[in-house]
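BUG: 3D viewer hangs when loading the predicted structure for this chain

Environment: internal workstation, default settings.
Expected: structure renders.
Actual: progress bar stalls at 90%.

Input used:
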Amino acid sequence: CIGGEGLARGYLNRPELTKEKFIRNPFSEDKDSRIYKTGDIASWLPDGNIEFSGRKDDQIKIRGYRVEIGEIENAIRESETVSQVVVIAKESKEGSKRLIAYVVSKESFDKEKLISKLQNRLPEYMIPSQWVELDELPLTKNGKLDRKSLPDPEIKTVNDSEDSLPRNDFEKTLVTIWQELLDAETVGIHDNFFELGGDSIIIIQIVSRARRAGYEIQVADVFSYQTISKLSEIMDLKS
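Structure tokens produced before the viewer hung:
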């Protein structure tokens, strides 16, 4: 909350919002004194500085669940190796949302170790599927996070050599499906589904499309065999 002589009187022609945001100042004996609820979450540090952490109203809906972005960021921030983090939800061309975490690390960033810790604290749908390590978070001239300057996560593929190219019709079909659902220009048969930004909702879509193409795979198969080449191997065993 902020207050003082320079505080506005309220929102123009919006009495209900004014009543909600401009509340009586509990720190003043003046009954007409007001403070403004900004919705920002911050900490008053021992050195007198105020550290901005995020927004109170930073809620999103993902996979049917209401998710507080701040809760995810706080869980990641508790890692001894992460000094700053911001999490955003990005919508794919297919309409599904995925969480992307941008982190500034104190030392070498071990994504797998951090994800393992998060799995003990957060449900699966609240764990970011994509991670971007930055030297520093982009800020506006006012010192706030510049979300528009956050880079798109790079799709990590193993390589584009002949060894990664599909070898049969099943692999060609899955490569096409993965490219469409993961918004990836190229997918190799040895690329890991989850490292490409996949999640459980996309797996369901993969299984559905594969079945329409005549290939019977299960959701559990994709969780257990996370590359197209390994899925191809179990298809050979089933056939």
